[in-house]
Design a protein that fits this description.
The structure holds 2 protein chains of 2 kinds. Chain A is an all-alpha fold. Chain A is built from 24 helices and 2 strands. In chain A, strands 1-2 form a two-stranded antiparallel ribbon. In chain A, strand 1 and strand 2 form a beta hairpin. In chain A, helix 2 (about 25-45) packs antiparallel against helix 3 (about 50-75), helix 2 packs across helix 5 (about 115-140) and helix 7 (about 175-185) packs parallel to helix 24 (about 555-580). Chain A starts with 6 loop residues before the first helix and ends in a 19-residue tail after the last helix. In chain B, strands 1-2 form a two-stranded antiparallel ribbon. The chains are: A mainly alpha, B mainly alpha. Chains A and B meet through helix 9, helix 17, helix 20, helix 21 and strand 2 of A and helix 8, helix 9, helix 14, helix 16 and helix 17 of B.
C-alpha cells in the first residue's frame, strides 16, 4: 500500500509497473488461485465423482501449494514489484492455510477441510481479480468499456457456472438463456427472475449468484466512482476536498488512489455485510440449521447492500420489523454511493477526534456538496414517494362496469399501517426488488407511480441503477435557476458548474429513452398486456427488479431485450460521461452564430 | 384591427364621439345577434317571427350604416381602408341577403343573415381580444383567464335548450367537458357530436373550436414570435432578424406594431382561406346521403375541425368509413399538417413564395437580403417529416406483427392499405384526433408509437398541442453537443442558445409531471387498465382526442381530471413559457464558489 504523501514515488513505481512487461512468473502467481477456484467450481458444479473428483482435488492442492511457495519466495526475496498494487503480506497466512487444508483434506478423515481450502482459494482468486482490475483499468481506453468489461466477464463466467448441473436443485435445469439472464440480473443488481432462484437453485447455485451480486456491486461502486472522477476532467479541479482526499486532486492522480478506493470499498462492504448478516441471522428461516441460516442471512445481506433484491428465504413481509429496521437501512446505505459514504466516514472521524486547535464543529463543515445533495434528494424522493404511494395504496379503484363482481384488488383495503409499510418499503427499495410481487401488492395507480420512482434510482457511485437522485436534484435546481431568471445553479452556498447540468439532462434523457426503447422492443416481441411489459422494461432499464410477473413467460427475444436493457442501464450513464468528458478535451476554435428557435 | 387602437387622427378629432359610435355599432350588432340566439337557441318569438326579423334587420342595417360612416371617416383621414375589409365584405353580403329574406322569406337567406351576424360579432370579439392581448400580454394569467372565460361561455351556450335534442339533456359536467374539449381543440367527446347535439349545438361547437384555435395561436405567435423569439430585448440582432423576415417587401417602416398586425392578418386570412378551400374540396368527396345542406355543413365542420387539429367529427365512427378513400384522407391530412406546422413556418414559406414570384416578374431587381428558410422552419419541417414518415412506417410494421401474431381477420390486408392506415394515424396523432381505423384494433406497438407521437405533438404557434416538435431536435442536438464536447447545440452552421435547451427540458418535465399526476389520479378512481388511462391522459394533454374507448365511461371526477388535463395541455406550456420569457433576469451581484459533484 502506498503511504499517504508518498505519491511521487508510488507514481514512478506504478508507471514502471505499467510500462514494463509483467513477467510470466507474476502472471502465474495471479493465475494459480484462479485455477484452484476453477477446480472447486468444477467439483461443485459438475458434481464430479471418482477419478475426475480426485483429479480436481489434486489439481487444486497442487495449484494452491505452488501459489503458497511462490508467495513465500517473493516475500523472502523481497520481490516488491509483485506487491505494487497492495500489500499482499496480509494474505500470506491465508495462502498458507489454504494450501495446508487442501493437502490435509486428501486424508479421508479430514475431508471437510476441503471446503475451507476452497474458501481460501476463492479469497485469493478475488484478490487476484481485483489486482487484475486495477492494472487493466489503466489500459482500457474508454470509461464505459471498462465497466462493461467488468460487468460482462463475471456475467459470462457466472452464466457458465449456473449452467452446470450442480447448480440446480430440480430436474429441470437452467438452459443458456435462463443462466445468462440470471447471471446478468445478478451482476447488474436488477433482481428480475426468469426462474425461481430460491427453489430452483442448489446451495452452490446460490453461492454463484451471491458472488455475482458482490462482483457487480463492487465493480459499480469502485469503477462508478473512480471512472466518473477520471472522466470528469473539466470539473475535477473543482471537486470538494473530501472527494480530492478520496480520489486525488486530478484525474491522473485517481489511478494512484485506486488501490485505496478498492480497499475502502471492500472494507465498508465487508463491515456492512457482517453487521447485516449478524442482524439478520436470528430472523431468517427459523428452525433450520445454522449453516443454512447463515447462508440465507448472508445472501439477503448481500442482496440488500447491492440493491439487487434476490431472496432465497421467501418474500419479504412489508409489515415485519425486520424489514424496516435492517433491510431498508441496508438498501438505502447501499444506494448512497461511495463518495457519500466516504465523506460521511470522514465527518464522523473528524467529529469524534477533532484535530487540535480547530473548531469542534469542523466535522460537519467537511460535508461535501455531493453528500448534502444526495442525502436531501434521497430523503425527498423517499418521503414524497411514501406519501404518494400511501395515497394510491389506500384507495380502492371501483370494479369495472363490465364485470362488477370481479374480486377487489388484493392490496387495497388493507389497514393504513399496512399501506404505509408497503409504501415505505417500495419507496425506499425502489432500486431493489425486496417486497412481494408487484401485481398482487400494488394497485394500478401505485404501479404507474413506481415507474418514475424506479427511473430516478439511487445515487452515483453505488450499485443502485436509474438516472440517479443526484441527477434529479441538479435538474430541479436548474428549473429553479431558470425560474429565477437564468441565474447560476446554486445550492448550499456553492455554484454547480454548467457542464454538470448539461450532463445531468443528458443522463435523464438517456434513462427515459432506454426504458422507452426497451418497452417498444418488448411490445414487438411479446404478447403480454401493455401495462405489465411497460413496467418490466422500466424495471430492467432502472436496474430495479420489481417485477410485474411477466419475466418468466417471456420469449427468448424478450429475454435478450431485457438482458441488453439491464446492461445498458448499468453502463449507460458512465458511458455517457466518458463520451461527454472523456478523451482529450478538444479546444473550441470556433463558434457558429446563434439563430432563434421558437418553443411552446 | 384599428378599432381598439383608434387612428391618431380620429383620436385627436372627437374621441368621445368616436368611442360612442363604436359602442353603438357593436350594440346594434349585439341586438341582431341576440335575436338569433333567442330565436334559434331558446325558441322565443314563436308566432312572432315578423317582429324578430324586423328587430334583427334593424340592428343589422344600423350596424352597416355606422360601419359605412366609419369607413368614410378613415378614407377622409387618408389612413386607407385598414382592418375593416372583412367586416365590409360580410356587411355587403348580409345587406344583399336581407331583401330576399325579409320579402320572400327564403330560408337559406335567413340562415345566411344569422350566420353573418354571429361572424361579425365574432370579429368584434377578436378585435377586443387582440386589443386586450396587446395591453395585458405580459400578465401570466391573461391566457388562462381568457381561455377559461371562453370555456365557461361555451358551456353556458351548450346548456341552451336548442343545442341538444329535447329527449337527451346535457349535464353541466358534460357541457363543461365538451366545451373544454372544443376550446382546447382536443376532440375527446363524452357525447356523440352528431346524435347528441342538434345542428345548432354543432354550430356552437364549430365556433368554439375556431375561437380556441385562433385565440391560442395568436397569443402564442405574438408572445413567442415577437416578444420571446429573442431571448431578451437587448439582443437586438435576433429581433431585427425576426422583423426583417416578417416585414420583407414591406415599404413601410418595420415597426413591431405593424409586424404584429400583419402577422395577425396573415393568420386570420390563411386560416379562413384554407378552411373554405378544403371545405369545397370535401364537399365533392364526402357522401351526400344525409342531404345537401347537411353535406355542406359536414364539409365545413371537418375542414375547420381538421385545420384546428380538433378532431371532432360529425360521423359517429370518425373517419373509419373512409379508410381507403385517399382523397378525403389526403385533404384532411393536409389540413392537419397546415394547422399544426405553425404560423412562423407558414409565414416564412409565404414570404419566400412571394419573393420568388416577384423576382420572376421583375428580373432586374436585386435584393441584398432575400428571405430564406429560417432555422426554425427547417427544424420544424424536418422533424415533422421524420415523425410522420417514421411514425407511419413503425405503426404499419407494428400492426403487421400484431396481425401475424393474433391472426386477426385483417391478416390479408394489402401492404398499401397498411401504409395508408399507418400514415394517417401518424398524421392524426399529432395532434388532430381523427381515426381511420378502429382504435381497439391497435396492437401494443402501435399504441406506444401513438403515445409518443401524441406526447410530441405539433409545432409551436399552431393549433396543435403536445410539447411541440421543436423541443425534440433541440434536445437531440443538445445531446449531440454533449457527446461531441461542443459548447452549444449546433446544426447547419448555426448554434442554439443553451437557454432554449433549458426551456425545452422544462417543457418536457412539465408535461411528464402533469401526465404522471393525472394518470395516477385517474387510475385511482377508474376501473380501466393503466394502458387505457395513460392513453386518455396523454391524448388530453396533447389535445389530440384519440381514445381507447373509455371517455364516455368516465365518472364525473374522471371527467374533471380530463378537463383539467386538456386545459393544462393547451395553456400550461405557453403560460410557463411566457412567465419565463417576460421575466427580467435577476442581476446577481455575487457568485458562490463552484463545487463539482460526481454523476453516473
Amino acid at each position: 500500500m502506498t503511504r499517504p504523501g508518498d505519491i511521487r514515488t508510488s507514481l514512478q513505481r506504478l508507471n514502471a509497473a505499467a510500462t514494463r512487461r509483467v513477467g510470466w512468473l507474476m502472471r502465474l502467481y495471479f493465475l494459480l488461485p484462479i485455477g484452484a477456484m476453477t477446480a472447486a467450481v468444477a467439483r461443485h458444479g459438475l458434481q464430479t465423482t471418482g477419478g475426475a473428483d480426485q483429479a480436481a482435488h489434486l489439481a487444486q492442492t497442487l495449484l494452491l501449494t505452488v501459489h503458497c511457495l511462490l508467495a513465500f519466495l517473493a516475500w523472502r526475496m523481497g520481490w516488491n514489484r509483485w506487491f505494487e498494487l497492495g500489500d499482499r503480506r496480509a494474505l500470506l497466512p491465508v495462502t498458507a492455510l489454504a494450501a495446508l487444508c487442501s493437502i490435509l483434506s486428501h486424508s479421508p478423515d479430514l475431508a471437510p477441510l476441503r471446503n475451507l481450502a476452497e474458501i481460501g482459494a476463492f479469497l485469493l482468486a478475488a484478490q487476484a481479480a481485483l489486482t487484475a482490475c486495477a492494472l487493466a483499468a489503466r489500459r482500457l481506453a474508454s470509461t464505459g468499456s471498462i465497466l462493461l468489461t467488468f460487468i460482462l466477464i463475471p456475467a459470462i463466467l457466472g452464466a457458465a457456472a449456473l449452467r452446470m448441473p450442480g447448480a440446480w436443485s430440480t430436474t429441470r435445469g437452467f438452459d443458456w438463456s435462463d443462466a445468462i439472464f440470471t447471471a446478468v440480473a445478478a451482476v447488474c443488481g436488477t433482481g428480475l427472475e426468469v426462474r425461481d432462484i430460491a427453489r430452483e437453485l442448489s446451495p452452490f447455485g446460490h453461492a454463484v449468484v451471491l458472488m455475482l451480486m458482490l462482483a457487480g456491486a463492487f465493480a459499480m461502486i469502485v469503477f462508478g466512482t473512480v471512472l466518473a472522477f477520471i472522466a470528469s476532467r473539466p470539473v475535477a479541479e473543482r471537486q470538494s476536498p473530501s472527494m480530492k482526499k478520496l480520489l486525488g486532486s486530478s484525474p491522473e492522480d485517481a489511478i494512484l488512489h485506486l488501490p485505496s478506493v478498492i480497499r475502502l470499498a471492500a472494507g465498508m462492504m465487508l463491515f456492512l455485510l457482517l453487521v447485516g448478516t449478524l442482524a439478520l441471522l436470528p430472523m431468517v428461516e427459523p428452525g433450520k440449521n445454522v449453516a443454512h441460516r447463515l447462508m440465507a442471512a448472508g445472501f439477503m445481506a448481500v442482496s440488500a447492500l447491492s440493491n439487487t433484491g434476490f431472496s432465497i428465504s421467501g418474500p419479504v413481509n412489508p409489515t415485519a420489523a425486520l424489514t424496516h429496521l435492517i433491510l431498508v437501512p441496508m438498501v438505502v446505505l447501499g444506494s448512497l454511493g461511495l463518495p457519500v459514504l466516504a465523506n460521511l466516514l470522514d465527518v464522523v472521524r473528524a467529529t469524534l477526534r477533532p484535530p487540535a486547535r480547530t473548531n469542534p464543529r469542523s466535522g460537519l463543515r467537511q460535508l461535501s456538496l455531493q453528500t448534502k445533495l444526495v442525502l436531501i434528494s434521497t430523503l425527498a424522493v423517499y418521503l414524497l414517494g411514501t406519501a404518494s404511494l400511501l395515497i394510491t395504496q389506500s384507495i380502492q379503484p371501483p370494479p369495472p362496469k363490465a364485470n362488477p363482481d370481479q374480486a377487489p384488488h388484493a392490496s387495497a383495503g388493507h389497514s393504513v399501517l399496512r399501506s404505509l409499510a408497503t409504501a415505505s418499503l417500495y419507496a425506499s427499495t425502489r432500486t431493489s426488488s425486496f417486497g412481494p410481487v408487484t401485481s398482487s401488492q400494488l394497485t394500478p395507480a401505485s404501479q404507474f407511480l413506481m415507474m418514475p420512482l424506479m427511473l430516478i434510482g439511487g445515487a452515483p457511485g453505488s450499485p443502485a441503477g436509474g438516472a440517479k437522485t443526484l441527477t434529479l436534484a441538479i435538474l430541479f435546481l436548474a428549473i429553479i435557476a431558470t425560474l429565477r431568471g437564468n441565474r447560476a445553479l446554486e445550492a448550499f452556498g456553492r455554484t454547480i458548474p454548467e457542464e454538470i447540468v448539461r450532463l445531468a439532462g443528458a443522463i435523464m434523457v438517456l434513462s427515459f429513452g432506454l426504458a422507452s426503447v426497451s418497452a417498444l422492443c418488448l411490445f414487438a416481441t411479446e404478447t403480454q398486456p401493455f401495462d405489465q411489459l411497460l413496467f418490466e422494461a422500466t424495471s430492467a432499464a432502472a436496474n430495479s427488479g420489481i417485477s410485474s410477473g411477466v419475466a418468466p413467460f417471456l420469449s427468448s427475444a424478450g429475454r435478450l431485450v431485457l438482458i441488453l436493457t439491464m446492461i445498458a442501464g448499468c453502463v449507460g450513464p458512465l458511458w455517457l460521461i466518458g463520451l461527454a468528458w472523456g478523451g482529450k478535451k478538444r479546444p473550441i476554435s470556433y463558434e457558429y452564430p446563434e439563430e432563434q428557435v421558437l418553443l411552446g | 384591427m384599428d378599432d381598439v387602437r383608434p387612428t391618431p387622427a380620429a383620436k385627436t378629432a372627437e374621441p368621445l364621439f368616436g368611442i360612442s359610435i363604436t359602442l353603438l355599432r357593436i350594440m346594434s350588432l349585439s341586438v341582431a345577434s341576440a335575436v338569433v340566439l333567442f330565436q334559434e337557441g331558446f325558441g322565443y318569438f314563436q308566432g312572432q317571427e315578423g317582429w324578430a326579423h324586423f328587430l334583427q334587420s334593424t340592428g343589422f342595417i344600423s350596424f352597416a350604416i355606422l360601419l359605412g360612416w366609419r369607413w368614410r371617416q378613415t378614407l377622409a383621414s387618408r389612413q386607407g381602408i385598414r382592418g375593416l375589409t372583412l367586416d365590409g365584405a360580410l356587411c355587403i353580403l348580409g345587406l344583399l341577403a336581407i331583401l330576399p329574406a325579409e320579402l320572400l322569406e327564403w330560408k337559406p337567406a335567413e340562415v345566411a343573415i344569422d350566420l353573418i351576424c354571429v361572424l361579425l360579432l365574432g370579429l368584434q370579439f377578436l378585435r377586443l381580444y387582440v386589443g386586450l392581448l396587446r395591453r395585458y400580454h405580459s400578465s401570466p394569467i391573461f391566457l388562462p383567464a381568457s381561455m377559461s372565460g371562453v370555456i365557461l361561455i361555451g358551456a353556458l351556450m351548450l346548456k341552451i335548450p336548442a343545442a341538444v335534442p329535447v329527449d337527451n339533456p346535457i349535464s353541466w359536467t358534460d357541457a363543461a367537458f365538451t366545451s373544454a374539449s372544443a376550446v382546447c381543440v382536443t376532440g375527446l367527446g363524452v357525447r356523440s357530436t352528431f346524435n347528441d347535439f342538434t345542428p345548432f349545438g354543432q354550430v356552437i361547437l364549430l365556433g368554439l373550436i375556431q375561437v380556441g384555435a385562433l385565440g391560442v395561436t395568436i397569443f402564442g405567435s405574438l408572445l413567442v414570435f415577437i416578444l420571446g423569439g429573442s431571448l431578451s430585448l437587448t439582443e437586438s440582432l435576433t429581433i431585427s432578424e425576426a422583423v426583417h423576415n416578417l416585414s420583407y417587401d414591406s415599404t413601410r417602416e418595420a415597426s413591431p406594431i405593424s409586424v404584429i398586425e400583419r402577422l395577425i392578418k396573415f393568420i386570420i386570412y390563411f386560416t379562413f382561406g384554407m378552411e373554405l378551400l378544403c371545405a369545397c374540396l370535401l364537399f365533392f368527396m364526402l357522401p351526400d346521403d344525409r342531404g345537401l345542406m347537411r353535406l355542406a355543413f359536414d364539409s365545413l365542420f371537418h375542414s375547420v375541425s381538421a385545420f384546428c387539429n380538433a378532431g371532432f367529427s360529425t360521423y359517429d365512427t370518425s373517419l373509419v368509413g373512409f379508410r381507403s378513400h385517399l382523397g378525403i384522407l389526403t385533404t384532411i391530412s393536409v389540413l392537419i399538417f397546415a394547422g399544426g406546422i405553425g404560423f412562423p413556418v407558414l409565414f416564412n414559406l409565404w414570404q419566400i413564395l412571394r419573393y420568388r414570384f416577384n423576382a420572376a416578374r421583375k428580373p432586374g431587381r436585386i435584393d441584398i437580403r432575400p428571405p430564406k428558410l429560417t432555422l426554425h422552419s427547417r427544424l420544424a419541417l424536418t422533424t415533422s417529416f421524420i415523425l410522420i414518415v417514421g411514425g407511419g412506417l413503425a405503426i404499419a410494421a407494428g400492426q403487421y406483427v400484431q396481425h401475424l401474431r393474433f391472426g386477426e381477420p385483417e391478416i390479408h390486408l394489402s401492404a398499401a392499405q397498411r401504409l395508408i392506415d399507418g400514415a394517417f394515424l401518424s398524421v392524426t396523432s399529432r395532434t388532430a384526433g381523427f381515426n381511420s381505423i378502429s382504435m381497439d384494433q391497435l396492437g401494443s406497438v402501435a399504441i406506444f408509437i401513438t403515445l409518443v407521437l401524441m406526447f410530441i405533438g405539433g409545432s409551436p404557434c399552431s393549433a396543435a398541442g403536445g410539447v411541440k416538435t421543436l423541443v425534440l431536435p433541440v434536445i437531440a442536438l443538445a445531446m449531440r453537443a454533449v457527446i461531441r464536447q461542443r459548447p452549444f447545440p449546433e446544426i447547419n452552421k448555426r448554434s442554439i442558445n443553451p437557454e432554449v435547451v433549458r426551456r425545452a427540458g422544462m417543457l418536457i418535465m412539465l408535461h411528464f409531471s402533469w401526465i404522471t399526476l393525472a394518470t395516477v389520479t385517474l387510475a385511482m378512481f377508474e376501473p380501466h387498465s393503466l394502458r387505457d388511462v395513460l392513453f386518455e391522459i396523454v391524448s388530453a394533454m396533447g389535445t389530440v382526442g384519440l381514445s381507447l374507448g373509455i371517455t364516455a365511461e368516465l365518472s364525473d371526477a374522471g371527467r374533471w381530471v380530463i378537463i383539467a388535463t386538456m386545459f393544462v395541455g393547451r395553456v400550461g406550456a405557453l403560460s410557463v413559457l411566457s412567465a419565463m420569457l417576460l421575466r427580467k433576469p435577476a442581476a446577481a451581484s455575487y457568485r458562490f464558489p463552484e463545487e463539482g459533484v460526481l454523476l453516473g
